[in-house]
Write a structure and sequence with these properties.
single chain, 286 residues, alpha/beta, D-Maltodextrin-Binding Protein, domain 2, 2 domains, ten-stranded mixed sheet, two-stranded antiparallel sheet, 12 strands, elongated
Length: 286
């Protein structure tokens, strides 16, 4: 799953046009799929069919090492079904080539409100986070407005919501940008950023929560991860599963699975270091 990038007029226009195209394609696929009639639910109701990115840890990969892989295994086990994957890079065209092409039935992680899919009830809420070395002197910093950051070199993934806040707080002049879109088969912006923090090449970094928690655990010593709860409403998101707009019964079934298995879901997320928030937007007790 890619961290949400909202707020850009051009991006929103592209989403609207992309949505219209996908709805037309989805309608045509439903009309021509054998035995499905005009209302698609599940092509194979005896298999838990997942749409996923093949190289996108901590979310998913082809080796089944991501937390969305583990969540899919949990749900399939609860349904007493095998799991099958359709892997496709999670870029523009992902939904069209997977879910709406009837090659799979669920995207394990998507932001609530995503215009390209119908979303289930959210199964976790998280936020962008500040990452730094425990010996950096930044302990206690919990906002990008903290004056202790004024002379620091901070890593930021270009085009993400915190970039706007860094600019507003006068921190962009010394910031180090990392690309939003990379070939994940060979590189990872979050890993590059956390490696630079660990090596002292930058003082801190701002990352989407699941990426921050995952990569911070994989440095020695572990990096400190502080959820940014004071920097505005566009920093945290509720994450759900995505299904086709026609699949109402399937959505309700997934909602029941989420409600019945929330403690096990939380345990998987905690194992991957995901900083989770409660309904009040405060750190969730684990």
């Amino acid at each position: 799953m890619i961290a949400p990038v909202w707020g850009k007029p051009r991006f929103l226009r592209l989403c609207v046009w992309h949505l219209l195209a996908l709805l037309l394609l989805g309608h045509r696929a439903a009309a021509h799929a054998p035995g499905l009639g005009g209302s698609v639910e599940l092509v194979d109701p005896k298999v838990f069919r997942v749409c996923a990115d093949p190289h996108n840890l901590p979310f998913s990969n082809q080796q089944g090492q991501g937390f969305e892989n583990k969540l899919a295994e949990l749900f399939a086990r609860k349904l007493n079904e095998p799991t099958s994957y359709t892997y496709f890079p999670q870029v523009i065209g992902f939904v069209r080539n997977t879910l709406n092409a009837l090659r799979c039935d669920v995207i394990m992680g998507t932001a609530v409100g995503d215009p390209l899919v119908q979303t289930t009830n959210p199964y976790y809420r998280t936020t962008y986070a500040l990452v730094f070395r425990p010996d950096s002197g930044l302990n206690g910093v919990d906002s990008l407005a903290d004056p202790r950051l004024k002379d620091k070199r901070i890593g930021i993934v270009a085009g993400t919501p915190p970039a706007t806040i860094l600019a507003e707080d006068g921190l962009m002049a010394a910031a180090k940008p990392y690309p939003l879109t990379v070939d994940t088969r060979s590189t990872s912006s979050p890993q590059m950023m956390t490696d630079d923090i660990a090596a002292g090449r930058i003082d801190a970094g701002v990352l989407w929560g699941p990426m921050a928690g995952y990569y911070a655990q994989r440095t020695t010593p572990h990096l400190t991860v502080v959820p940014l709860l004071k920097d505005g409403p566009h920093m945290d998101f509720r994450i759900a599963m995505g299904v086709r707009r026609t699949d109402q019964d399937w959505k309700r079934r997934l909602n029941r699975l989420i409600a019945q298995n929330q403690p096990e879901i939380d345990k998987i997320l905690a194992d991957y270091g995901v900083p989770m928030l409660d309904e009040q937007g405060q750190p969730k007790l684990q």
